[in-house]
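Regression test case RT-17, inverse folding.

Input:
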């Protein structure tokens, strides 16, 4: 069996790492294609190093562009690679533009596609990722879901039961395997930031950062909150660009950082009093870690993080954000459990299903 993986953006890298390792352990022939959607060392290279992913066999170097341009460039450059290498399976991950582009190419070439992290739905088609999820799942031959709400969503969309396998959450595999490295990194980070109790913040969704009239009140509120609990804010390139157009003077309690490598970010999550985010994966990681998470979105494609885990949807209700941060500061943050099959062995199950 020859498996070809397609990855492109930061949240893909934590997902491919354990699957690649599990297949390598079984002696499977593998090819790794990086589309180059994310290209900065801090958004890409450092993840390959820390997660032990081998150097990509092919880098398509697509870079940035509008959604259509980015998707089309991946399709154009990936097609000859698939034609030439003729894998038995192509594995695509998550919901980024590279994912849907690869699924389209393979569907037309009649090469089998497996989608890792299938079935998630926010039911919000204004999110580009939701379009990517819907299309990818319609095209995939094998749908590997992280939780059983994914199975239910796919069945409701008419996907045959025999194509769906609930395998658990591969991101949690990576977290489990690097937990000890994160614990080792913590003393250095604590000394560097001189902080024991803090909030960790990430923001990059177009719906929060692209419109300055929306972003400014969010930032002002977060700065205010940082006077109660200091805020560490590693900044995504999209957000850095958006912030450059705003006038604000961050106090020393609002710490702006470059994007962090996986291990440092995990260490800061694990030790945070709470996390404020609009990311998808961070909602899952905080649930696993038992750290309260306030998600600045109206909806989530990961509802088990709310029903079982520590996640709360805050939307853009900044009053509610302040209230929930106060609860965290007073030790009344949301507690929760860990969903089934988020156990560090999802990639092993994927390798078994493929075999
Ligand atoms: C993409 C994914 C999103 C994921 C996010 C995580 C899609 C539709 N979106 O959004 O699901 O949560 O990645 O990071 O695929 N940039 C850099 N350096 C980089 C990468 C990007 O400077 O290494 C800049 C780009 O030039 C662009 C901006 O950041 O201006 C956005 O990048 P893009 O890949 O378009 O989307 P993301 O917002 O990162």
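Golden output:
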């Amino acid at each position: 069996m020859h498996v070809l993986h397609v990855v492109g953006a930061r949240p893909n890298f934590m997902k491919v790492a354990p699957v690649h390792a599990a297949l390598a352990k079984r002696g499977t022939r593998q090819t790794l294609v990086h589309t180059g959607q994310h290209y900065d060392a801090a958004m890409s290279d450092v993840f390959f190093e820390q997660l032990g992913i081998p150097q990509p066999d092919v880098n398509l170097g697509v870079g940035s562009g509008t959604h259509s341009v980015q998707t089309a460039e991946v399709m154009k450059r990936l097609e000859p690679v698939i034609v030439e290498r003729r894998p038995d399976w192509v594995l695509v991950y998550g919901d980024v533009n590279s994912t849907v582009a690869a699924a389209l190419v393979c569907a037309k070439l009649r090469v089998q596609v497996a989608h890792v992290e299938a079935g998630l739905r926010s039911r919000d088609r204004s999110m580009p990722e939701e379009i990517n999820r819907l299309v990818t799942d319609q095209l995939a031959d094998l749908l590997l879901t992280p939780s059983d709400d994914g199975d239910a969503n796919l069945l409701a969309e008419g996907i045959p039961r025999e194509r769906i396998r609930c395998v658990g959450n591969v991101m949690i595999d990576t977290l489990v395997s690097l937990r000890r490295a994160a614990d080792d990194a913590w003393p250095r980070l604590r000394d560097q930031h001189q902080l024991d109790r803090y909030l960790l913040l990430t923001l990059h969704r177009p719906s929060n950062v692209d419109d300055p009239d929306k972003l400014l009140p969010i930032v002002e509120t977060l700065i205010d909150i940082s006077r109660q609990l200091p805020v560490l804010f590693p900044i995504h390139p999209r957000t850095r660009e958006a912030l450059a157009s705003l006038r604000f003077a961050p106090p020393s309690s609002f710490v702006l950082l470059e994007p962090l490598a996986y291990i440092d970010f995990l260490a800061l999550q694990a030790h945070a009093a709470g996390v404020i985010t609009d990311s998808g994966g961070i909602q899952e990681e905080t649930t696993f870690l038992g750290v309260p998470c306030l998600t600045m979105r109206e909806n989530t494609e990961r509802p088990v993080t709310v029903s079982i885990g520590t996640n709360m949807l805050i939307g853009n209700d900044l009053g509610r954000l302040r209230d929930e941060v106060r609860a965290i500061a007073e030790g009344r943050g949301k507690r929760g459990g860990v969903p089934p099959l988020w156990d560090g062995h999802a990639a092993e199950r994927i390798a078994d299903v493929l075999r």
